[in-house]
């Protein structure tokens, strides 16, 4: 199962709206078994891991290790359950169930009805972490959200004059590009676009499937020269409020998503619902401070990745997170430390939301294409 999990991670950022599944086929022998097939969900979400692992092999009597319950419905591809049954495998070992109501236990039931031994719950916690984006999209109608903060050790992202390039070093920036590649989309606010005119593409990591670039801008009052110049390299989606000229951006090639407002800002909950309905499962937010605060205040941040540099900018610098309106310490969002490591001259620290729960309750999110 460890190999299947590792294979599944190859699909992070590449298979949405489908889950990043891994599968390994093992022929039992006196030494415990020999791997005869392996696969992971292909770019774009299909073919699925099981059919790729079964391709070109004789799996009669073999054991299939798969990280998610095999699909049991006819979508754009035939059910993986039928492929496993047709291959006459002897056993299927599953890490975690699929909450998609079209599957949700039906895959396991069909396998057992065909006389196949089924074991579930093997390394389930790891599988649910790896596929958190897919699971949250189905159960909570939103993507998994990672908030990236690159700041001085006193929590500043720019000087009083707005200078921010570069607080962290080149190793940290390369790491950020790799993290972008592991997400379906990169999200920033309008202020970041106006200040930095970023491209938000993945660079210097070899050939990759570029993430969607998402900009949250209530009035669409952005220049976005570099985002528009690179539309041929990566999609651009714009989340905006009402009564704006979104058509001119659509005519330029951007996708526009009208979102509800919360006061004078885009409602972050509705924005995440709209992104989930459009297929996104994993979003990498790179600021700015106001957008970070709105996501944190709405309880939408599942992971924080901080890169802290050995530099102090002082109280007059721009804080990495905007105002949260907190009066009581107990109301502050809490996160659990997962990892701390040195990246070049900087420190990277990863935190998971303490209350993150990947339950089984499902919500309608639009087409689930598996």
Structure, briefly:
By secondary structure, the protein is an alpha/beta fold. The protein has helices spanning 2-8, 49-54, 80-86, 106-113, 124-130, 132-140, 170-181, 190-196, 225-229, 247-252, 268-277, 289-297, and strands spanning 22-27, 34-40, 63-68, 91-96, 117-120, 144-152, 156-158, 185-189, 212-216, 236-240, 255-258, 261-262, 265-266, 282-285, 303-309, 318-319, 335-343, 346-353.
Report on this model:
- The chain is an alpha/beta fold and 370 residues long.
- It has two domains: 2-130, Cytidine Deaminase, domain 2; 142-353, Dihydrofolate Reductase, subunit A.
- It contains twelve helices and 18 strands.
- The protein has helices at residues 2-8, 49-54, 80-86, 106-113, 124-130, 132-140, 170-181, 190-196, 225-229, 247-252, 268-277, 289-297; strands at residues 22-27, 34-40, 63-68, 91-96, 117-120, 144-152, 156-158, 185-189, 212-216, 236-240, 255-258, 261-262, 265-266, 282-285, 303-309, 318-319, 335-343, 346-353.
- It has a nine-stranded mixed sheet, with helices on both faces. A five-stranded mixed sheet has the order 2-1-3-4-5. Strands 7-16 form a two-stranded antiparallel sheet.
- The longest helix is centred in the middle third of the chain and has 12 residues, at 170-181.
- The two termini are 22 Å apart.
- It catalyses: 2,5-diamino-6-hydroxy-4-(5-phosphoribosylamino)-pyrimidine + H2O + H(+) = 5-amino-6-(5-phospho-D-ribosylamino)uracil + NH4(+); 5-amino-6-(5-phospho-D-ribitylamino)uracil + NADP(+) = 5-amino-6-(5-phospho-D-ribosylamino)uracil + NADPH + H(+).
- Pathway: Cofactor biosynthesis; riboflavin biosynthesis; 5-amino-6-(D-ribitylamino)uracil from GTP: step 3/4; Cofactor biosynthesis; riboflavin biosynthesis; 5-amino-6-(D-ribitylamino)uracil from GTP: step 2/4.
- One of its GO terms (biological process) is riboflavin biosynthetic process.
- Residues 1-119 form the CMP/dCMP-type deaminase domain.
- It comes from Octadecabacter antarcticus 307.
